[in-house]
Amino acid sequence: MTEREKMLAGQLYDCGDAELLTQWHKAKDLARDYNRTDSVDVEEKERILSELLGGKGKNLWITAPFYVDYGNNIYFGNNCEVNMNCTFLDDNIIRIGNNVWIGGGAIIMPGVTIGNNVVIGAGSIVTKDIPDNVIAYGNPCRVVRENK
Question: Model-level pTM?
Answer without folding.
Answer: 0.94
